[in-house]
Amino acid sequence: MEVTIITRGKQLDDLVNESIRFKEVLVIGSDGEQLGVMMRREALDRAYDENLDLLCVAPNAQPPVCKILDYGKYRFEAQKKAKEAKKNQHTTEVKPLRLSPVIDVHDFETKLKQATKWLQSGMKVKIDMRFRGRLITRQEVGMKIMNEFTGKLAEFANIEKKPSLEGNTMSCVLAPKKK
Questions:
Q1: Torsion over CA of 160, 152, 106 and 93, rounded to 10 degrees?
Q2: Is the pLDDT score of 92 beyond 80?
Q3: From the CA atom positions of the chain, what is the Rg in Å?
Q4: CB neighbours (10 Å) of residue 95?
Q5: How far apart are CA 99 and CA 103, in angstroms?
Q6: Are 46 and 68 in contact (CB under 8 A)?
Q7: Whether residue 5 has pLDDT greater than 60
């Protein structure tokens, strides 16, 4: 019996009981003691006598290593461990912010406050400035505004990617400073 478990999109293929196809295996008992090298059938009988399962823990070893254990409990513990690891994983979110080369003072201050709030909460901020129509000829104005914006955020952020022009969009990425 080949056991296939699907846990949130991930598939685990474990060699358990009858799905173990090796002729000889090194067996570890349920209490952790080494029982030695046995024929597959003998190892399965030993596991069944204890009302437990035989799990191949190292199929690439010479000879393959199998352990006598309660497979349901083992699977539950593995899923619990994976869930705990996922819970402790931290993902960094990148928040987008769009400026304009002809931005007004109040809009500039509002976007500055929003970026400050995001940076203080540990998020990265990607600042985009789109040059529309004939504004592309005035890139120096856009660069001045971008430098002023990043300068005012200097106490909260490090510049991860300097302002650069890609097509008609100038962008830069700011990362929060470590506390």
A1: 30
A2: no
A3: 30
A4: 16
A5: 7
A6: yes
A7: no
